[in-house]
Amino acid sequence: MPDQETIVITGVGLTSPLGNELATLRRNLLDGISGVSTMETRFMGEVFAGICNFDERRHQSSKERRRGTRAGSISIFCASEAVASAQLDLDTIGRSRIGIFIGVTEHGTVETENEINVIRGFDYDTKCWSHHHNPRTVANNPAGEVTINMGITGPHYTIGAACAAGNAGLIQGCQMLRLGEVDAAICGGVSESIHSFGIFASFASQGALASHADPTKASRPFDKNRNGIVVAEGGCLYLLERLSDATRRGAPIVCELVGYAMNSDACDPVMPLPERLAECMTAAVRRAGIELSQVNIINTHATSTPSGDEQEAIAIRQVFGDYPNVYVNNTKSFIGHAMGAAGALELAGNLGAFDDGMVHPTINVEELDPACAMRNLVCNEPRDIGRVDYILNNSFGMLGINSATVVKRHSA
Questions:
Q1: What is the three-state SS of 119-132?
Q2: Catalytic residue list contains 163
Q3: Which residues pair with 295 in a beta bridge?
Q4: What is the average pLDDT across 239-268?
Q5: What percent of the chain is helix, strand and coil (3-state, nearest 5)?
């Protein structure tokens, strides 16, 4: 198997706070519509959140849903939609030759919090503890639920990569295809984070949870008055194939996955290091075999925290500051931070640029922070740049894990 055989995306399945289809997500991004609203969470009352609304029963039975998890349900929905959009017959390709590689920030906290809440009402009698708890909370649960639902017998696992996990899932799928271990990879990232009060509480204790009079304006990366993260749920899974296989079966090709990189800051649990971010972006572009000046869109990771946004802006200026045709945007300003799903969902929101030539904006930038100023940062209104050939997608996470992917317009 040639090490550098071209890998292509042939299917996309997603659920997001801005819709459950690629076209809907894209339209809402170009129209500047926020997907952030409010919800009640245990012990904290009303919080801002990016909430998904999809049909959990479209691809799984009521029994499966009761036995499984929200992350598993998101995964099943996204995987099934990705396979459908790729027009892939699982039996033709062979179910043992399909791999499931799903990035997650964390898994199991939602179910454990729920069980503890129940047992409190029964004087902590463990007889009340669900016998489903163990299979619900093992780290491979979201990917495993997909295999059971779809009868896929190839390898499956989750990739714990904090908020870089969506990109990490894509990278793993690409590598397994190039190794010849699978002939199709369902990969990306999912998140059920809004259902865990602990995530909200922890960000609040850090002083990193967004506040604003208007929930739709709470997520505001690069704005001078940004003050924290809006937690979101969601998922995006891609169907990856080798170009030769996709061409042979006449598959619809969305784009090519041509570059990727991952590295570590190795310095702090939460503070990004611009030097390592710069190295990660540069390595991904070099692997794609292009010059830095050929990148058309950089989708930033920026989460709307004061320090994190500034560190990424420093890195982007360092790497791309001299290139007039590189444009910068941010998707979290619309949907919040979908944690393990973030990288995969944010990439999806930009794929439409290959067709329409538009850079979707970063919304809610009322007063740009001078420390976050970047050349061609697209704010509040979309920008028509005519043609898009390469998109760089940044996704960074706690404990200093960094990832970047590069996708390319496919020319038949």
A1: HHCCCCCHHHCCCC
A2: yes
A3: none
A4: 97
A5: 40, 25, 35
Quick one: fold of 258-408?
Answer: Peroxisomal Thiolase; Chain A, domain 1 (3.40.47)
Average pLDDT rounded to a whole number, residues 8-30: 98
Per-residue pLDDT reduced to its tens digit, 84-114: 999 999 999 999 999 999 999 999 999 999 9
pLDDT for residue 412: 75
Could you give the CA distance from residue 370 to residue 367 in angstroms, rounded to a whole number?
9
- Predicted local confidence at residue 322, as pLDDT: 86
Fold equal for 7-248 and 258-408: yes
Q: What is the largest CA-CA distance in the chain?
A: 65
For 185-244, write each residue's pLDDT tens digit.
Answer: 999 999 999 999 999 999 999 999 999 999 999 999 999 999 999 999 999 999 999 999
How far is Cα 319 from Cα 281, in angstroms, rounded to an integer?
Answer: 8
**Where are the chain's structural domains?**
7-248, 258-408
Q: Which of 163, 187, 236, 379 is catalytic?
A: 163
Q: How many CB atoms lie within 10 A of CB 137?
A: 16
Q: Could you say which of 78, 301, 360, 372 is catalytic?
A: 301
Catalytic member of 107, 337, 360, 372: 337
pLDDT band at 2 (very low <50, low <70, confident <90, very high): very low
Query: Residue 231: what are its φ and ψ, rounded to 5°?
Result: -80, 140
Residue 282 near residue 318 (C-beta atoms within 8 A): no
Residue 301 falls in the annotated catalytic set: yes
- Closest by Cα among 47, 348, 408 to 190: 348
Give the architecture (CATH level 2) of 7-248. Answer: 3-Layer(aba) Sandwich (3.40)
Residue 4 — very low, low, confident or very high, per pLDDT cuts 50/70/90? confident
CA distance from start to end of the chain: 22
Residue 410 bears catalytic tag:
no
